[in-house]
Each structure stands twice: as C-alpha cells, then as structure tokens.
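Question:
Now give any protein.
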Amino acid sequence: MDNKFHSGFVSLIGRPNVGKSTLMNLLIGEKISIISSKPQTTRNKIQTILTTDNMQVIFVDTPGIHKSTSKLGDYMVKSAETALNDMDIVLYLIEPYEKIKESDLSIIERLQKVHTPVFLVINKIDTIDKPELLKVMGNYSKKYNFAEIIPLSALKGKNHEILLEAIEKYLPEGPKYFPEDMITDQPEKQIVSEIIREKALYLLQDEIPHGIAVEITSMKQRKDKEIMDIEATIYCERDSHKGIIIGKQGSMLKKIGSNARRDIQRFLGTQINLQIWIKVKKDWRDSDFLLKNFGYDSKNI
C-alpha cells in the first residue's frame, strides 16, 4: 500500500437477507444496521463511516433488491438501485449457492450498466467446503467480469481484513469527508427507532410480518441526571396485530422494551427510560404521507 490517504463511497447490494447489515456492522465495529432473519429488514440507505490511518470509507447499506408489492417496496427498490451509481466501489454480496438464483441474475443484469468496479463478496463461506466454493466462484465469473472476488463470513468475522485491503487498493486518493470519530450520518433518533424495530421483528417472529414502523416522538436528557427519557410509538396495520405486539398482560411489549433498552443504552452511552406505545395505522405502507412521516421519503434517494 502507498502512504497516500484514500477515501470514497462503497455501496453494498444484494438480495434481501444475504448478510449486508451483518457485514456492515463487522466492518465498522459498531452495531448500526439492524439485523433480522427476515428479508427486507433494512428500509433506508444507511451510511456508515470507517476511518483508518490510510483511508476513510463511507459504506452505503441499501435495502435488498426484490420484487415490490407496495409503495414502501417501491421506495426500497429505488433506494437500492440508485446506490449502483455515483459510487467508487460496489460490493455485491451473495450466498454460496452453486446455482445462481433468478433474483441474482436480475442483479447481474443491472450491474452490466455500471462502470464502477464491482467486487463479488461471497458470504457465509463457513457453511460450505472449498470445492463447492470454487464452483460458485466459477459460475459467477462466467456471468460478470468482477474486479475482485472475496469469500468471507460476516457472522464469524473471517476474511474481512482481505476485503478492506482490496477496498483501499481501489479507492481514489481523497480527503476525510467526516470527522475521525464519526461512524454514521444517521440521526440518533433514526438509529434508536431501528433498534426498537429490530427487537420487535425478532420477538414477534412470523406473527407480524413487516407491517410495523417505529417513530421516536421524544428524546430528552433529564436535567442534572445521567438519564434520557425516550418515547416511542410502534405503528401496525391491524387491530389484531396490536394485541399480539402488546401480548398477554403486556408481556410482549415489555420484552421488546427491555431488549431494545440494552442496545440503546450502549449506543447512546447513557441510562435511558423507554416508554413505548402501540397505534394502528391501516395500510401505512401504501400511504405517501405516512411513509414520508416515518422517514421513507423518495426525495432523499
């Protein structure tokens, strides 16, 4: 590596649930993107910043590219597609399946129009052996001329140093766009709401799909006390969902709150008092007004 400073923007793309958020959190060393076993967990482009002695990388974690069935879905796909342009590097994350899925073929077709260097990042290599991995690499290489092919395991923290070395090699010389200690451009409220949504997604399992949104209505530091009062509202689409989220004698809501509290306190570095309410907003995912209100504004794409 040379002694010059490198900086630039790196986009993460791929099908839903291939591990983009897990990889982002690993590279940054902090939990910024929420993680769930459900697809379409990431709804916004999330910018995180990694600064080392030699480079500053601004990672853009996008919603997975998928077939849309609602205005929220349209927003998510548009957000992901715009990330293919105006980037210094595109990281295309896949799972190690020998047969290329139709949805991945669709992404590769979109990549044919991209002039930016594209890295094929094969995640979850801890789940297959080397001969199978070589077959995956061979099959994808026939479909696209990747600048780099890097196998890794985001969950196990394996080979991510190799990815960072390759990124530094391809990034142009440039300045520090953000202060060294800054790790995200997301407002604190946005991350706090995403932490609550993550806990709800995890605990509710398949009972409530993706028909929830979280709004932080108030975040105030108490005077003369190291404690922050946070008020949040979880919106769902049906009255029946409201009962499930609250649970028997409020048990589910208590679990969501206590699990979220731990992560929020670690993120903010202070004790918090968290109050969560539940409201029903029917069909909010198809309301332009409500989508904008919850932070999914197409003007920001």
